[in-house]
Design a protein that fits this description.
275 residues, pyruvate-formate lyase- activating enzyme, alpha/beta, 3-stranded antiparallel β-sheet
């Protein structure tokens, strides 16, 4: 089946609407807000409108489901790249109800619901106590403070798969207490891209990888972003030195995202959970 999303860890992306409110440091350079503005839409903020879509848009996942059923495969759908399904706005409730109905009608699709508001899931989600088989619930954890806060709230909701997106990774994070209890089934991590990208120390990503390896949790390294380790003998005009929490310094070069790539210590980490 052809992939129609450029996000490495999903096959398709579906947005029930566009628009959100910035909430934490990960949101500072929100790509979705920048993308919306390219279309002339001002959709970010509590008082801003949200952009909704018509029937053709909502029929797309039905077609993906038919394709997956015909091929005997399961297909991942990231929902939503341009919004937060669990944003606390009552005007979004009818659209959420439509999304829940669509999820039930597409059993061949695994719906990946990623939120920065896991505390609000229980207020609007119909499967809080009994997991919906084709829904994976995830939250963003860009540093230790937000990991501690969000993961505990995510754990209050039952899910077939619980996952974390540590992107952009802004500091070292210790996930051990959740990984060792099998409370998290998948970790995605990566650096930031864009003109204002903040650098990621290589030891931050290595530490996450090692924690996942120790506790046998699938690890997916999405990207370095625009800052990546300086190659031996490289001469770049845009280089910085970044120290981790132990004082270890690493030289990072600014590169196009595709050139930075997603190879970590000579390996591409493409871990996925087995739901």
């Amino acid at each position: 089946m052809a992939r129609d999303s450029q996000i490495e860890w999903t096959h398709h992306t579906f947005n029930p609407w566009w628009g959100c409110v910035k909430l934490s440091p990960a949101c500072a350079h929100c790509y979705a807000e920048s993308w919306a503005r390219r279309f002339g839409d001002e959709l970010w903020g509590g008082d801003a409108p949200r952009r909704f879509f018509g029937e053709q848009h909502w029929r797309e996942p039905l077609r993906w489901n038919e394709d997956a059923a015909r091929l005997g495969t399961r297909t991942r759908v990231f929902c939503a790249s341009m919004a937060d399904v669990f944003e606390p706005r009552t005007d979004l409730d009818p659209w959420r109800e439509r999304l829940w109905d669509l999820i039930e009608k597409t059993p061949q699709l695994d719906w990946l619901l990623l939120t920065k508001r896991p505390g609000h899931i229980k207020h609007v989600y119909p499967w809080v106590s009994v997991p919906q088989e084709n829904v994976w619930l995830g939250t963003t954890a860009e540093n230790q403070r937000w990991a501690d806060r969000r993961i505990e709230r995510l754990l209050t909701v039952e899910a077939t798969v619980r996952f974390l997106s540590c992107e952009p990774l802004l500091s070292a994070i210790d996930l051990t207490r959740w990984l060792k209890r099998d409370q998290i089934s998948w970790v995605i991590a990566g650096g930031e891209s864009g003109k204002q990208a903040r650098p990621m120390h290589p030891n931050w990503i290595r530490t996450l990888r090692d924690q996942c390896e120790i506790h046998r949790v699938p690890f997916h390294f999405k990207q370095w972003g625009h800052w990546s380790p300086e190659a031996q003998g490289e001469r770049s005009n845009n280089v910085i030195e970044l120290s981790d929490e132990t004082g270890m310094s690493e030289r990072l070069s600014w590169r196009p995202k595709k050139l930075s790539g997603r190879v970590l210590d000579g390996q591409t980490w493409n871990g996925y959970p087995h739901a």
